Amino acid sequence: MLSVIEATKRFGEHTALRGVSLEVGAATTTALIGPSGCGKSTLLRLMIGLIEPDEGRVEFDGEDLSNANLVGIRRRFGYAIQSGGLFPHMTARRNVEIPAIRAGRGGSQLTERVTALASMVHLPQDALDRYPAELSGGQRQRVALMRALVLDPEVLLLDEPLGALDPLIRAELQTELKDLFAELGKTVVLVTHDLAEAAYLAGEDIILLRQGVIEQRGTFAEIRDEPKSEFVKAFVAAQMQRVGALTAGAVS
């Protein structure tokens, strides 16, 4: 469904991606993970056409992402970022409606769609008429997810969707996202820095990046138990130590 073919992306003298190739199948959930600056968010932005590769290409259903077809293809994608990226001067409802209005959709069907989405992501209906500053962090992320889903896209691209939340809200939304992915059956690609989150949401397909290249791709068990490099081994160990330290701190 979604293909990245020998993609290289540079920002000035910095090379963010180096000849990356990957395939993402329909109705699958894939997690992009790695240390800061490894290229995972850049890769996600390439997939939706927010930036273009300097070399290589991106295809969706066998069609190149290009300026000629980008608007039409983007409507088949939903995209959400850390902290939601909501417009502060618009109510939650209006934030959700924006992609549909730009696509020429509105009226009673859009109203019904927003109501249904609020129920789907467990957002109180009265929160729809509040502004982002009047919402909690978890509610803002739910609104951002609703906006990503309003056009019923085939693909969801989520960039650290839970990164700015406190642990309790994050755990709650992780459970809701996992259930939502299973219910909707959409193709999902998500960026996270947290291996435990990647394992929970996309345990069967995790892509670990380092310095703009794919270091290893596999299931959580494969990456944990069969690391293909010293970096993978060290990354997994550091993540496991972090979880252990947090657990020990909670117990003590």
Concise summary:
This protein has helices spanning 40-48, 70-74, 92-102, 107-120, 137-149, 167-184, 195-202, 220-225, 230-251, and strands at residues 2-11, 14-24, 29-33, 55-60, 63-64, 77-81, 155-159, 187-191, 206-210, 213-218. The protein is built from nine helices and ten strands. The chain has a six-stranded mixed sheet with strand order 6-7-8-3-9-10, sandwiched between helices. The chain has a four-stranded antiparallel sheet with strand order 2-1-4-5, with helices on one face.
How confident overall, as mean pLDDT?
A: 91
Which residues form runs of ≥5 with pLDDT under 50? Answer: 245-252
Helix content: 40-55%
The proportion of strand residues reads: 15-25%
Multimerization status:
single chain
Radius of gyration (Å): 19 Å
> What is the distance, rounded to the nearest whole angstrom, between the alpha carbons of the first and last residues?
48 Å
User: What is the number of E strands?
Assistant: 10
Helix-strand sequence: EEEHEEHEHHHEHEHEEHH
The number of helices is: 9
**Arrangement of strands in the largest sheet:** 6-7-8-3-9-10
Structural class: alpha/beta
Sheet with most strands: 6 strands, mixed
Assign an overall shape: globular
